[in-house]
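Sequence design from tokenized structure. All designs in this work follow the same two-part layout: the structure record, then the generated sequence. An example of the structure record is given first.
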């Protein structure tokens, strides 16, 4: 058994966090062969919402999601906490209340000490406790690559469900967190991330979307999603496609974690981020001023990313004040929607 102090969890996988996600191209091809199910009330993967929706009665619905991934940081406890935080985020993105979670674990019991797994699970438990969510059980398998996450069940009132398909023309696009965790996680895995940069990325991923979700429910929100494995461009593209609108983004208004651009210039880019850009670029027009590394920054595969909140411009001012009053991360308007143009997204 290895000495715990020498264990670097990120060395046990080829990808880190949501950068290990199956590419959008491959997943679309696979899901396209499935019949799926959608009767207008029960909603599954067909519309790419953050959660499945199952009505209980005419007032409330169950919403459910599942997320798990490989280590994005070396510390087992922090890995568990980030993974659980990421799993809860889909419920928050739809305006729901998570009720309980079930652990999903894969772990190399022959190669890593069991107390490493205990620390991963402890991190998940603490993240859920901070959000008043209980973990009621789970399932584990033996595997060469550590993986952890949760299946989360929540509840929501039917007239308060916030989907990703209901954006409106002239709505503004608000981003609640900085971007760049995929690029930084690759730098961590390569051992080249500074302590300041690493700490900033971890702090971002540990910041729950619970508070932002509760705040936005006091306003008229037309659509919302959280930014995870398909990056800002991928998740925004889903909103555009399902809402039949074009998004206009301003690169200069988008905040990134310190050093992300420097790392991107040096080609410290995860494979998942490159896959995102290759797949979604046919739906995007980039201004000539946007450089290749900046395109990759926008497509960066995020783990436990922020919310992308879509609302009327009149609502945005007060919403931003409320969000920024209670968070150390500055929520900002990064763009707006127009009627559908030749492409889904324009970036200037």
């Amino acid at each position: 058994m290895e000495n715990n102090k020498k264990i670097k969890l990120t060395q046990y996988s080829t990808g880190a966090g949501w950068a290990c996600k199956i590419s959008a191209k491959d997943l679309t091809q696979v899901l396209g062969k499935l019949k799926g199910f959608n009767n207008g009330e029960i909603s599954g993967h067909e519309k790419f919402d953050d959660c499945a929706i199952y009505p209980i009665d005419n007032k409330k619905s169950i919403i459910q999601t599942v997320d798990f991934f490989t280590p994005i940081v070396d510390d087992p406890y922090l890995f568990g906490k980030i993974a659980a935080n990421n799993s809860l985020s889909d419920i928050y993105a739809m305006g729901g209340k998570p009720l309980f979670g079930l652990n999903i674990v894969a772990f190399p019991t022959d190669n890593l000490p069991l107390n490493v797994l205990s620390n991963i699970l402890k991190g998940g438990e603490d993240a859920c406790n901070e959000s008043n969510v209980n973990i009621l059980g789970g399932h584990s398998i033996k595997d060469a690559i550590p993986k952890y996450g949760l299946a989360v069940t929540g509840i929501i009132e039917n007239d308060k469900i916030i989907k990703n398909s209901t954006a409106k023309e002239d709505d503004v696009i608000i981003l609640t967190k900085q971007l760049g965790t995929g690029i930084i996680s690759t730098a961590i895995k390569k051992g080249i991330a500074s302590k300041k940069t690493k700490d900033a990325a971890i702090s971002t991923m540990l910041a729950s979307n619970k508070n932002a979700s509760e705040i936005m429910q006091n306003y008229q929100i037309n659509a919302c999603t959280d930014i995870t494995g398909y990056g800002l461009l991928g998740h925004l593209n889903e909103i555009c496609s399902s809402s039949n609108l074009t998004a206009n983004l301003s690169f200069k208004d988008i905040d990134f974690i310190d050093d992300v651009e420097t790392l991107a210039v040096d080609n410290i880019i995860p494979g998942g981020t490159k896959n995102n850009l290759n797949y979604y670029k046919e739906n995007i027009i980039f201004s000539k001023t946007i450089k290749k590394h900046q395109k990759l920054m926008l497509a960066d595969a995020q783990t436990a990313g922020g919310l992308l909140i879509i609302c009327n411009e009149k609502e945005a001012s007060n919403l931003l004040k409320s969000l920024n009053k209670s968070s150390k991360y500055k929520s900002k308007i990064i763009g707006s929607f127009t009627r559908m143009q030749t492409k889904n997204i324009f970036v200037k």
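The first helix runs from residue 24 to 31. We note this feature because it recurs in several other targets discussed in the main text.
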